[in-house]
Amino acid sequence: MAHLELDVGNTALKWRLCEGERRISGGRVPNKSVADLPFGGVTEAWVGSVAGEQFNRTLRDELAAQGVTASFAISQRRCGRVQNSYTDVSRMGVDRWLAMVAAYYRAGQRSVVVVDAGTALTIDIVAGDGQHLGGYILPGAPLMVRSLGLATDRVKVEVSSTGDLSPGRNTGACVANGCTLAQLGAIKQAVSEAQAELRGSPVVMVTGGDGRGLWELGRSESTEWEYVEELVLDGLAPVVRASGER
């Protein structure tokens, strides 16, 4: 029986249609509308959403109108061997939790630094025994660019892709490359902190809308970096099953 998997972020919805563990199709909806999703023969959807309670209620109702029962993933104290470090696990965005669970098992239950580069940039460290050691949250490139536009009179540019690490020679390039430098610097420093804490080199697993560009710039011979486009979606099955909502 086919089911839908939905990753609802701050600005877009990612989806894929699966039959068992086999991916049939997938895509991205910038406005988070479910109107064009492939509902034919689907009766179940697994959802990871950071869009807020009001949106989630509307989403549940829209899916129900299509005959689809929605199971929403939640951040948990533990899922399999992965253990959450938060005292109040409900305060952790479910996208981070889904990405951590998926990354840990994809890495073969080795230590992993999980990077999700979207509206925000999140970086989480999971040890080889599955213990979450903590993480970092900072503005992603879209928020960095927006803050410059709001707080200055002359730095108003549109940045549509990840920059490079060279010094810019116009304002647009300076902003794009500066945002990239800041994000990549944060990731590499987090990896350095993880190496010191773990006394070894973790896998670095990158996802998110700006993830591929950062992965291409950041991978090196000394550290194992991997880009996984649907990492958050990959975490839905184990987390929803562990929560007993399925």
Automatic annotation (TrEMBL):
Species whose genome carries this gene: Spongiibacter nanhainus
Compartments where located: Cytoplasm
Gene transcribed to yield this protein: coaX
Protein name: Type III pantothenate kinase
Subunit structure: Homodimer.
Cofactor: NH4(+); K(+)
Chain residues that bind ATP: D7, V8, G9, N10, T11, A12, L13, K14, T119
Residues bound to substrate: Y86, G93, V94, D95, R96, T171
One annotated Gene Ontology cellular component of this protein: cytoplasm
Superkingdom field: Bacteria
Binding annotation for K(+): D116
